[in-house]
């Protein structure tokens, strides 16, 4: 076989359901579906972040956010792992990136030989002025940004909710300036100048003439959309009739009131009535089908030039979008609509599995990096969190991943065995969903007594995932050692709404967490290895310890686990972002009458707009 290549296709903000192969009732993606038939469709893949840049950095480092510490869009990171494209370039690959990069926090040396970019922030990465999309538009007398470019939609607006720069350029769209539904509809940009076609053209130029043909290639084809704005060039603007689209059932007022107040805040901010839902979905779906056709151009080139069989092709998205679920759009929340992503991999040389094949076990975006280097025989990379699952393509069984983690600053989501916990730092509320029975996450089970054991089980799993792996060792003397380290505890004022203010003292030593609640004289030994945890009541001066059955004092035990989680989250999340997010999160659930009043007024406004 020829040298094996890599084609890494990434969309921006694609909902995992919006593919023909996922049996979506409306969206048509024949070429992506065909790719899946030649590879493996991973149906239970989670991104590590619900927003663009942190998620992309997770892909390229193989690390959780808690390790590389990039939670937003500002600042620089120095990941301890070598970046994926740089690793492939050092291994002798010709590397190129085309489209939306959005990885500025990684610095200049990412590892690409050739770059063509669409974003303003990526201009400095372009290997020539002709490789920057705004320059291409200028040469063709088209004003930037168009209704296809980041910066033209209110979803990307500055705080006063005006489109960036006040521009509504090159569009015949119906314009909203109140929320994410801006710039959805027909765009006046001819398709030959569209952002999707330009991105594909740049990638094809790389394959045809810009790469070193004596080397295998690693190509990142990274489309800007279906992220807003949703300006659609003809003929794709007429592809989907808004009136004929399928809408999912809406949440009831009771279901909304059963979720934390920040969920209700986002619902109000991004709420769309039926008319907006249909209009934006028609544009969103059209862009997906348009990109499907562009991907076909690249795959056809590979086949026509005898490169298809020798190329590993990955199709995925950096994260998802609510895409009309619960009457909303956008991202920046830990719903499965946002953090669950498509992941299709067609390995070079084919798979030993009979195709089409699907794998329903948990995987994460950080797993792609170690899997790719294993498939291509490259040296392993140190200090990554991802798991190599390349054995699947050889038809071998692999251990099932226990849990997936997604982080949104100080809010953490854990997915395990069809259940999902969303944990809020220093809040007395959260979310718990049985995804196998409630995939739309309508019914929050967090406060229900019959699900308390499941809630606590997932919290304990979250402790383990946030801690990371530990080497097992002789720990027979660990308790005596910890007691001899008097005065070395970290003091944490662990206060939640409705709790008495009191300090907890927490330390970690050789894979053992110790949590002490001084006023009430209780102490928890919590090991990260196979040993059972121990919960004690202390005598005066700590001279004696009485073992407590955790089941007899479950309220207190869960408080200790919450204190430990809050300590962990604070230690792995930059303090400034913790403070900002905590100030923005009301610590309660919305009142049912407040929700009903909002839904009623929204319905009246919807009817008056018709």
Automatic annotation (TrEMBL):
Species annotation: Limihaloglobus sulfuriphilus
Name listed for the protein in its UniProt record: Arylsulfatase
Enzyme class: hydrolase
Database matches in PANTHER family: IDURONATE 2-SULFATASE
Keywords for the protein's UniProt record, in alphabetical order: Hydrolase, Metal-binding
Annotated EC: 3.1.6.1
Domain Sulfatase N-terminal: 4-377
Cellular component GO terms, alphabetical: cytoplasm
């Amino acid at each position: 076989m020829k040298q094996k290549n890599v084609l890494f296709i990434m969309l921006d903000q694609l909902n995992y359901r919006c593919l023909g192969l996922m049996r979506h009732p409306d969206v048509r993606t024949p070429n992506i579906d065909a790719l899946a038939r030649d590879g493996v469709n991973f149906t239970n893949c989670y991104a590590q972040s619900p927003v663009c840049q942190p998620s992309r950095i997770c892909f390229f480092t193989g690390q959780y956010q808690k390790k590389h510490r990039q939670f937003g869009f500002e600042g620089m990171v120095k990941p301890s792992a070598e970046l994926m494209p740089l690793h492939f370039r050092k291994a002798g690959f010709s590397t190129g990136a085309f489209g939306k990069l959005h990885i500025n926090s990684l610095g200049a040396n990412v590892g690409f030989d050739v770059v063509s970019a669409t974003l303003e922030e990526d201009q400095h990465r372009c290997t020539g002025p002709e490789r920057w999309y705004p320059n291409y538009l200028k040469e063709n007398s088209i004003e930037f940004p168009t209704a296809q470019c980041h910066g033209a939609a209110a979803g990307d607006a500055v705080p006063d909710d005006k489109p960036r720069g006040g521009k509504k350029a090159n569009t015949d769209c119906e314009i909203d300036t109140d929320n994410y539904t801006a710039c959805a509809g027909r765009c006046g940009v001819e398709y030959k100048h569209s952002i999707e076609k330009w991105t594909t053209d740049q990638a094809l130029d790389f394959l045809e003439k810009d790469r070193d043909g004596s080397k295998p290639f690693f190509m990142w084809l990274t489309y800007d959309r279906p992220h807003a704005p949703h300006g659609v060039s003809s003929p794709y603007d007429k592809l989907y009739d808004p009136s004929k689209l399928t809408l999912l059932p809406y949440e009831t007022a009771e279901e909304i009131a059963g979720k934390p107040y920040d969920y209700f805040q986002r619902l109000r901010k991004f709420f769309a009535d039926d008319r907006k839902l249909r209009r934006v979905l028609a544009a969103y779906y059209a862009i997906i089908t348009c990109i499907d056709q562009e991907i076909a151009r690249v795959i056809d080139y590979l086949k026509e030039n005898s490169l298809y069989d020798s190329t590993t092709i990955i199709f995925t998205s950096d994260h998802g979008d609510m895409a009309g679920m619960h009457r909303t759009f956008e991202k920046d929340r830990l719903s499965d609509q946002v953090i669950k992503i498509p992941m299709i991999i067609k390995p070079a040389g084919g798979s030993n599995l009979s195709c089409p094949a699907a794998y329903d076990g948990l995987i994460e975006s950080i797993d792609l990096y170690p899997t790719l280097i294993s498939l291509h025989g490259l040296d392993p990379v140190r200090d990554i969190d991802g798991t190599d699952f390349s054995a699947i393509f050889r038809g071998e069984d692999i251990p099932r991943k226990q849990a997936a983690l997604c982080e949104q600053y100080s809010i953490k989501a854990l997915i395990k065995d069809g259940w999902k916990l969303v944990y809020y730092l220093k809040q007395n509320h959260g979310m718990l969903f049985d995804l196998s029975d409630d995939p739309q996450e309508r019914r929050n089970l967090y406060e229900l007594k019959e699900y308390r054991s499941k809630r606590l089980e997932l919290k304990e799993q979250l402790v383990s995932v946030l801690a990371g792996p530990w080497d097992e060792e002789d720990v027979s003397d660990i308790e005596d050692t910890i007691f001899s380290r008097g005065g070395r505890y970290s003091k944490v004022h662990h206060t939640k709404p409705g709790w008495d203010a009191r300090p907890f003292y927490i330390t970690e030593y050789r894979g053992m967490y110790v949590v002490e609640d001084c006023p009430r004289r209780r102490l928890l030994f919590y090991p990260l290895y196979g040993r059972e945890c121990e919960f004690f009541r202390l005598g005066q001066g700590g001279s004696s310890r009485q073992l407590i059955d955790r089941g007899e004092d479950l309220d207190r035990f869960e408080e200790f686990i919450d204190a430990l989680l809050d300590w962990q989250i604070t230690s792995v999340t930059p303090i400034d972002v913790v403070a900002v997010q905590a100030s923005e999160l009301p610590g309660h659930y919305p009142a049912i009458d407040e929700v009903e009043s909002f839904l009623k007024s929204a319905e009246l406004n919807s009817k008056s707009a018709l």
